[in-house]
Design goal:
- With 251 residues, the chain is an all-alpha fold.
- It has helices at 14-27, 39-61, 66-92, 98-114, 122-138, 141-146, 150-209, 215-246.
- The radius of gyration is 32 Å and the shape is elongated.
Length: 251
């Protein structure tokens, strides 16, 4: 009598388990039509598909955090704003008008005091930019206006604020993602439990009612199980070889 082979699906990686269950969902089309299906099988299939869908949602929501890329782009933008402002003042320090040149030198001294922060860690750079912006804003407006520096100052200030907002969003997303990762485990466990119930139900009905109506489903699922067992066996062998290669030689 044909039956679905035993298989510890919990040994699979998250993506492998999801892929395996996804194919099983497709293979349920090979089960008898719902109007001729025993209630136990209908319930098992419905529960399994719902659990699989929840597992799918959990995996999607735990994917890479897009706010990381946003924060990185904002960091690059503030680097460029700092370089632009610094280079502008450096050029103005060579202005042919002495008063303009001396004004530019005063502002440039603030940049030189803190140095180039663009190669620092993001947190350190924020500290440097905070102090630099505070110093630059402390100059009387007419001094900054004398060298038309406010557009550069406003741009650097806006880019730093945008970065801080992006980091706050990134941190919130990371905190939420940690919770979602826990949800993935919960939803995966539920989906795999529903799969096992489906397998038990199909095997029992195959024994009670004959295998004819379930043969295709059983054969196809068993073929997948065989492939996954081969993958697991190969992985175990490769891991054993790696461990053996890393084992110190006894003297």
């Amino acid at each position: 009598m044909k039956r679905i082979n035993a298989f510890n699906i919990a040994r699979l990686r998250n993506e492998e388990s999801f892929g395996f269950l996804k194919v099983v969902v497709t293979e349920t089309d090979n089960l008898p039509a719902e109007e001729t299906t025993p209630a136990a099988l209908t319930n098992a299939v419905t529960t399994f598909k719902e659990a699989y869908t929840q597992f799918d949602y959990a995996l999607e929501s735990s994917a890479a955090n897009p706010d990381v890329a946003t924060a990185s782009a904002a960091d690059t933008a503030r680097d460029q704003a700092w370089r632009g402002a610094n280079n502008y003042l450096a050029a103005m320090c060579a202005h042919p008008d002495e008063e303009t040149r001396n004004t530019a030198l005063m502002l440039k001294a603030d940049f030189d005091k803190y140095g180039d922060p663009t190669s620092l860690s993001q947190t350190e750079e924020s500290g440097v930019l905070h102090n630099l912006l505070t110093d630059l804003k402390s100059w009387a407006e007419h001094i900054r206006t004398a060298v038309t520096f406010d557009p550069w100052l406003n741009d650097l200030n806006a880019k730093e604020e945008a970065f801080l907002e992006a980091v706050a969003a990134r941190n919130r997303s990371e905190a939420n993602r940690a919770a979602r990762i826990g949800q993935v485990k919960e939803r995966r466990t539920a989906a795999e439990s529903a799969y096992r119930t489906l397998v038990e139900t199909v095997n029992a009905l195959s024994i009670l009612n004959g295998e004819a109506d379930y043969e295709d489903f059983i054969d196809h699922v068993n073929a997948m199980i065989d492939r996954q067992k081969t993958v697991l066996k190969t992985r175990a062998t490769n891991n054993a070889k790696k461990e053996e290669g890393n084992t110190p030689v006894s003297e």
